[in-house]
UniProtKB/TrEMBL annotation:
Organism the protein comes from: Nonomuraea rosea
Designated name of the protein: SH3 domain-containing protein
Residues in the signal sequence: 1-28
Taxonomic superkingdom: Bacteria
Keywords: Signal
Length: 140
């Protein structure tokens, strides 16, 4: 059976309807855009198990920090093309969108366009709720 945008749209609509019917922390756990299945990438001589996670940013770029805090400094960025690969996730400092009503303290390890490893706030992951990890991303 081949891919069809119609069936994909129907599945997304069903997922959205299910999510909107839930409340509280159960709703946050109903991530309509979880990270995909793990796969391996080889970087140099090292093999890393990673997952593609749907991400976004209104500027089209996501900053990658040295650690799980904005105070750790930016090591590069990633282009947002709908999803990027991430190795794992862990808790750190909270990051908020301007206005302060949306935030997350979960971060995901990835490689920036500079070739340096770092962390992206899961605030920029599609789906899920505030201050919760992506339901599909492995833990560091």
């Amino acid at each position: 059976m081949g891919f069809s945008w119609a069936s994909a749209g129907t599945a997304l609509a069903a997922a959205a309807a299910t999510t909107s019917a839930l409340t509280g922390s159960a709703q946050a756990r109903a991530d309509a855009f979880p990270c995909g299945a793990p796969f391996e990438v080889t970087i140099g001589q090292d093999v890393h198990t990673v997952q593609r996670c749907p991400d976004w940013h209104d500027s089209g770029r996501i900053e990658v920090y040295a650690d799980t805090s904005v105070d750790s400094g930016v090591v590069g960025e990633i282009a947002v093309a709908g999803d990027h690969w991430y190795e794992c996730g862990r808790q750190g400092d909270a990051l908020y969108l301007s206005g302060g009503d949306v935030g997350n303290d979960w971060w995901a390890r990835t490689m920036a366009d500079t070739g340096r490893w770092g962390y992206v706030s899961q605030l920029y992951f599609k789906g899920g709720g505030n201050f919760e990890p992506d339901t599909g991303l492995r833990r560091c």
